[in-house]
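Changelog note: in this version the structure field was regenerated for every chain. One regenerated record is shown below for reference.
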Amino acid sequence: MARLTESDIRLSTKILTWIGIIDQLSTTRITRALAPLKLPYPQFVLLVHFSHRPEEPQTVMRVASAMQQPQPGITKTIQKMLTKKLLRAVAAPDDARSKLLYLTPKGVETHGKAISALVPVFREMFEPWSEADINDLIEKLDRLKVWLDTKGRK
């Protein structure tokens, strides 16, 4: 394994610092845009997660694992979403103590409204970018995301 140089360490630190700053700034903008929907950011994130495969049941453990978040926090957010009827819970056939979670029609509708509310944010952020620049950024971010989600899980 190659030894990291001082320059490599500085650049790696800079990349992760910028990603953290971008996360904070974009979360603030998204939160502001979702406020009229009374949809907190953590619930929006879970709506996005569930919307990828809306018919596929999820468990709290599976969601927590996918999000790499502690189960109690995910449980709390899911409880709020169940109360709002964005998700529904059904007893798991093989273990009545476990619940299978599904996105509801209201959850699908709320996700759509949230995305619509974010269009102006997306437009303001990315309109000056070329399609090639956006695709290049997506490719590089996806590479980092895949590594963090697979090899980076420890």
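Spot check on this record: Helices lie at 6-34, 41-51, 60-67, 71-83, 105-126, 131-149. The chain has six helices and two strands.
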